[in-house]
Amino acid sequence: MTEPASTIFLVDDDAGVLKALSRLLSAVGYDVRTFNSPEEFLDQHDPSLPGCAVFDVAMPGLDGLQLQSALTAGGATRPIIFITGNVDVPTSVRAMKAGAVDFLTKPVNDKDLLSAIERAMEQEAQARQTRSELASIKGKLASLTPREHEVLTHVIAGRLNKQIAADLGTVEKTIKVHRGRMMEKLGVRTIADLVRLAERAAIRPHQPQ
Amino acid sequence: MRSITKATLLPILVAILYFIGAEAAFLVGTLSDEIFAPFWPPNIVLFCALLLVPVRLWWIYILATLPAHVVAELGVGMTTPAIAVAFASNCAVAVFNAVAVRRYLRDPPWFGTLRKVLLYILITVVASPAIVALGGAFVPILSGEPLAHYGRAWAQWYASNALGGLTLGSVALSWLGAQGRLSPLPAGRRLEALVLGIALVVACSVAFDLAATMVASGFLPVLLYAPLPLILWLVVRFGARGASAAMLVVTVTLIWRALDAPSVFITGGPETNVLALQIFILGLAVPMLLLGSAIDEVRNAAEITRESEQRMIFTANKANIGFWHLDRATAKLWLSDTCRKLLGLPPPGGDELTQPAILSVIHPEDRPAVVESIRDAAYAGELALNEFRVVRSDGAIRWFRARSYAELSDEGRPVRIAGYLSDITVRKMAEAEAERQRREVAHLMRVSVLGELSGAIAHELNQPLTAILSNAQAAQHLLAQETPNINEIGATLADIVKEDTRASEVVQRLQGALKKGEIKTEPINVNKLVRSTVRLLHSELTDRKIKVELALTDGQPTTLGDPVQLQQLLLNVFMNAMEAMASVKSTRRLIAVSTHAAATGVELIIADRGRGIAAHEKNVLLQPFFTTKERGLGLGLSICSTIVASHGGEFSLTSNADGGATVIIRLPSDATQLMVAAK
Q: Residues B223, B226, B227, CA angle at the centre, nearest 5°?
């Protein structure tokens, strides 16, 4: 069981189904929020809350797939599980291509649903972790001076201190100081760590002219 | 060639007959010393010839008889002026007779009714001989008789022509039937006629011979009456034909006997005797001929009645129509033979038919209505019940239709009620078969509509199943907790029950729509019907992204009808609306349904925003097999309009101004229907 703070966003136009699914997921320990229509969900959705979404496919107004694109267009990365009454291959393919976690058919078994939700939660947690790591890296990178940033691009390009100094028109000693301060600010000890960090932050190495 | 031969031969034949007639008359006449014949056949020969040939040929026949006339008259030593006057008067009689008979009796048969024979006598026995005798009487004068004898000469001339017309002429005309052909007697009656004729000759001869010896005794009248029974016999048996033939026989016999030997008429000279005889025969012949024609007329009328009755019975038998007749006063029912046969009742002759016996063959379910109908008919003059069933002795059920017509008294009250009864089983069976097939088609259409909807209906069933499964599994999880929340588990179970009910409702709706069977009539809330149909179509509507807008009246719009048929009606209309909007932008797809309580019932309006109705489709839209869909059968709307019509309502389709079509269904309210039913 994942962290109790995870929320499941349930959207289904059928009140009976919505209530039953909500009851099942609550019994298992999730925090469940139910929405009777896609419009209601879009109005009230808070992307910052951790958790996943379970959408019915056939709904009046926006259907499940349209809701999915509306959600991703808004920048949200919430994992989505679809449940549908009609097993319709083209629709399920479209949903999966658009990033759905799973496409389940009604009546849905609790094991299938729960395992899909667990996967979704994991995916969500991972993404969240990645996002927070990235955020801290970005913060560290932001603390670098322009000179230190410049030195960073040269270091990850595999250049020696002497070469860097020549490139930047300074002495090797100055480069060493910059380099030491940059490594310290970024919290890395080895060049390998530095390269991995720069890769994650999508910093491109310096290209010699 | 043939017609030329005929045209030449016939006038010659008439001339020969004319000559023979004259010679015969002279033969009879010359038996006495006088030259006058008691009756004169040549005029009748010419008359009959003129009657039978076209007017434009008359001159040929008249010319043809001239030589015969001259030869015959010269034979008895007539002078030229006498011959000329005699010929002129002979021709005048023939022409007068022929013209008048053609004018007044028209076409053959000339005899047959009393009126015709009376006219014939007036022409040929009274008018024509009397007028022509005015000239003919000069013939004896020209032959040397004194002018003082003109009166007697006129009388003789008149009598001989009148007698000819009365005897020979009426024989010819009564025996000539249609198209101037001889109408023979049936073989069996020829012998009877022959025997009677011979007996008449004998009776006349004997009576007159004996009479001559008995003039002095008081028994003379008795003898004169002797031939009468035979004459009457002939008249009664053979009508005008018998009368004319009898009178010819009597005339010829009497004249022959009177001239041959002294007889009843012996007191005067031969001419006086002959005149007396002629008057005697005229007096006898006229009433006999009239009696004969009267008998003919009665007999013909009876024959015509019998023939028309036979025709009617034959036709009624062949057409399986029975006649019946109800006497209002006695409430007695008379049935024709066919009627009895149709109803499976015993033929007449056995026991008197009683009302219970008649009623016993009627189908028990229809019997009270028939009894009431007969009773009411005695007052209203009309059968209220038109169709009923009869159970034959072999158990077969036949359908009958009865029609009635009342004979009203002056006060307008029915006196008698008559009518006919016809077997309409074949038609009824055909109707039932047509109805069965119509229902079968409607059922197949329902099945096919539901087939199209099967995905949506499966989804409709899937929703409650989903809810049930999730609820049940939620309950399992709840139970697995250390301190199970009993209240929550209870609520879960309650929801399971609710969802199960919902699933079974879907199944019931489906079963209802698929049902095949007798048509029921029950009160139906149109609002409920609309809601249930929208529920059944919920998934399909969602799938097709069609919104439904309901504006249902607050009242309870109720109609009497068959729930399955009305559901089918709405399903068809909704399916059409949905299909019509397939190519419309999804935000515009809307079906607006409204119900209204109208003056006479419920009005249901279903409007879509689809392709609408093209002008050229308007008139054929409701006809079977008209379709605009690629794979449509064209039966949907035709079934809709049939269903509405069978519920006593109206079904109409119009195009909307802003695109799309509107269906308006008017159904009578159940109160209106109950009132109509009560009436």
A: 135
Check CB contact under 8 Å for A24 and B474.
Answer: yes
Are the beta carbons of B42 and B65 closer than 8 angstroms? Answer: yes
Considering only CA atoms, give the Rg of chain B: 49
Average pLDDT for residues B52-80, to the nearest whole number? 88
Rounded CA separation B237/B241 (Å): 9
Give me the sheet containing B387-391, strands edge to edge: B333-335, B321-327, B414-423, B397-408, B387-391
Cα B582 → chain centroid? 60
Locate all alpha helices (DSSP H) within chain A, ordered by sequence: 15-28, 38-44, 64-73, 89-97, 110-142, 146-156, 161-168, 172-186, 191-200
Q: Give the residue ranges of DSSP H helices in B593-669.
A: 636-646
* pLDDT per residue as tens digits for the range B479-495: 998 888 899 999 999 99
Which B residues in the span 127-186 are in contact with A, Cβ-Cβ below 8 Å? none
How far does A98 lie from chain B, in Å, by closest CA? 21
Enumerate chain A positions whose Cβ falls within 8 A of a Cβ in B: 13-14, 16-17, 19-21, 23-24, 26-28, 58-60, 63, 83, 85-86, 106-110
Least Cα distance to B446 among B528, B332, B567 occurs for: B567
**A62 closest CA partner among A75, A52, A73:** A73
Residue B679 pLDDT greater than 50, yes or no = no
pLDDT tens digits along B282-338: 888 999 999 999 998 999 899 999 999 888 888 888 877 888 887 777 767 788 888
Is the pTM value of this prediction over 0.95? Answer: no
Upstream peptide bond of A107 is cis (omega within 30 degrees of 0): yes
Write the residue in A26, A28, A85 that is nearest to B459 by C-beta: A85
pLDDT tens-digit profile of A98-148?
A: 888 999 988 899 999 999 999 999 988 888 888 888 888 888 888 889 988
